Sequence to fold (202 residues):
Amino acid sequence: MKSFRINEIFYSLQGEGRNTGRAAVFVRFAGCNLRCPFCDTQFDSYREMTAREIVAAISNYPARFVVLTGGEPTLQADEAFVDQLHEAGFEVAMESNGTRPAPRNVDWLTVSPKVRGEWRVERGKRIPDEVKIVFEEDTDPEAVLSPLSTLYSSLSSFLYLQPCDTGDSARNACIMQRCIDYIKEHPQWRLSLQTHKLIGIQ
Fold:
């Protein structure tokens, strides 16, 4: 029986993007194909769990909205696994770095391409419902999106910039102001804040 490497399962509110504020069960997969310096996930530790065990664990919570995150969930989660979550009555969202195709049957796909990584959406594959770029001082959001211009004229209705949390309050303030200024000049983008950090929840 197939098993998955699960870093943690926890219940909280979605803190970022279009679904901010929704109660959600988070299934964090271990392992990632990128090593971004700002990542706050200890994705190397894990326990092996079957799909049945995961469904049993997340069914203990009242919300029927599950977020598959990581690490990088596309390294493990597939359409068969998403089908099992649907059969258990869950709406399924996924957060991915976009370097690998996502299961076509997820209900909501967030792609967060990393400036230092590469990403692509192949024709015929699952198109993101939202794109969320971690914004740093030298980030050029349009350059990050440019590889898709020949495939899709309108990638997503929801394009978000999220100021990077560097751990340095002075630098964070500078990044925030640059991000705000950029959005005011490029209003197709929206601001995404890590509200879970702002209110002190996981």
